[in-house]
Amino acid sequence: MTFSSLREQVAEAARRVAAEGLLIGTAGNVSARAGDHVAITGTGIVLAECSAADVTVVSLSGDAVDGMIAPSSELDLHLCVYERTSAQAIVHTHAPFGTAVACVSGLTSLPVLHYQQLGLGGAIPIAPYATFGSPELAEIVAGALVDTQVALMANHGSVARGSSLADAVANALLLEWLATLYHRASSIGRPRELTADEQQSTVAQAIRLDYGTPKENRT
Asked: Domain Class II aldolase/adducin N-terminal spans what residues (predicted)?
């Protein structure tokens, strides 16, 4: 894949998450990995208007390779996640409900209320707070994402990884839906969590049905 193609794909994903209401203005960043290079949205850009020219390609050590704009201040976070997981794309947003949940005192994870959450890895961790753009935040978030596809960042926002940009965007959207569900359930009463047995049964059923995969009608 050429750098120009990779940069355009990242820009398109950035515009998509902005259009979905997961971020406003310059608050957020998107990246994709291609071999030994990472294309990431530039610092200070408005993601709703992101173009390929607003995306910078760097090496895995963070050295700029292609592009005129300095990479996002969260570059270390992206590189650390790529180093410690199998991620091929990352979406970081300040999605309203995910961020709200991440600001709740004493809450260390988003519990499993709905079976779709199991596809992301189960209970969603809320990574402890660290200053944005810091090496400490990069290490904390990367550690939180080792065993899950998504995480919340205390008093900050949300982050999703995936096997592709489309996958990472879908995971970010599902995370926000789950955070919204938790918020709404909590406003009504005490949310009912799925038990371990119910979660295990759901996983077995999903495997048996190959859930979420299009299939031809059997005649």
From this structure: 8-183
